[in-house]
Amino acid sequence: MNDLIAKLPKAELHLHIEGTLEPELLFTLAQKNNVVIPYPSVEAVKKAYRFTSLQSFLDIYYAGAAVLIGESDFFELTWAYLLKCQEQNVLHVEIFFDPQTHTARGIAFETVIRGITRALERAEAELGISAYLIMCFLRHLSEESAFETLQASLPFKEKIIGVGLDSSEVGHPPSKFKRLFEACAKEGYVVVAHAGEEGDSSYIWEAIRLLHVSRIDHGIRCDEDDSLVAYLRAHRIPLTVCPLSNVKLRAVNDMKNHNILKLLHQGLLVTVNSDDPAYFGGYVNENYEALIQNLHVSPEELKILAKNSFEASFLPQERKEYFYRYIDAL
Ligand code: HPA
Ligand code: ZN
C-alpha cells in the first residue's frame, strides 16, 4: 500500500509555504539574518512543536516566519518544498502564502512573491511540477489591512491565481470579509477559504453563501449538519482535508476517529493535504499513510483520493483527464 501511495501522482491543494519551514532551515536563516529566536538548538525548536489548539500553533508559526527576510530566503523555502514534492510524486501544487505576515515586518510584497515564483518557475522547468499561488488574508487582522494587501497584489496579478482566508478562525467568520472577497472576485481571482476547522458548520455555510468559494479548506465540521453535507455533495464543492494537522491541533482527538473516509463514503469530494508539514510531522505521503494505519483505507479509495486531488484543483480539464488516465493505469 505504501508502494501505491509513492507511485500515485498527486496534487496538493492545501499547503502554506510558511508551514514548510523545517527546523534546520529556520535555524540556519536565523543565524544568517541575525534574527533572535527563542531556541538554543534545532532540537529545542523541534521540542517546541507541541500544540494544543490552532492558536497555540499559529503563535509559533508566525514567530518562525520572522527568519524569512530576503528574496533568496523565500526562494530557498519554496524550492525545498518542491524537491519534497518531486520525491513524493506530487505533480501539481496550489500553494498558499501569507503576505501580511511579512509586510507587517517591513518585508516588501515584491520580495516575497519574487522569491516564491522563481522557485515555482524552476520547478516547472526542471522538475515537471506545475504550481499555482493562492494569496491568503489573515482573518484575525482587519478588513482594511486585507484591502491594502489586495491592492499590493495587483501588480503581480498574473502570478497569483486566487485568494484564501486563514489564521484564527473562531471569532473571525467569513462575513467579516464579504466585501473584500467581492472585490477579489472582480479582479478575477478564484476564491477559497478555511472554514470548519475549529469553527462550526455555520462558518462553512458563510464561506459558501457570502464568499462564494469554489473550495473549502478543512471543512471537516460539515458533518454536524446533514443539509450542508447534502449541499457539498450536490454542488461537488471540494474539501481540502489535512489529517495530520487536524490531530496535531486537536480538531480531531485521534486519527482513528477522523471523518475523512466517512465523508468520502457520503460522496463528498475530499482530498488529502499536509497544511504545514514542517510543523505537523509529515508531507502528503505521510498523510495518506496515516489513513492506511488508522482507517483501513483500501487501494481503490487511495486512487479515488488521488483523482479527487486533481478534480478539485484549478488545472485545465484536459490536464485533469491526463492524471485520471495515469491513475487508472496503475
Ligand atoms: N488554519 C488556519 N490558519 C493557518 C493554518 C490552518 O490550518 N495553517 C497556517 N495558517
Ligand atoms: Zn491551512
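^ zinc ion complex. Strands lie at 10-16, 90-97, 130-138, 162-166, 190-195, 215-218, 239-241, 270-272. The pocket of hypoxanthine (ligand 1) is lined by residues 16, 19, 54, 166-167, 194, 197, 245, 275-276 (CB under 6 Å).
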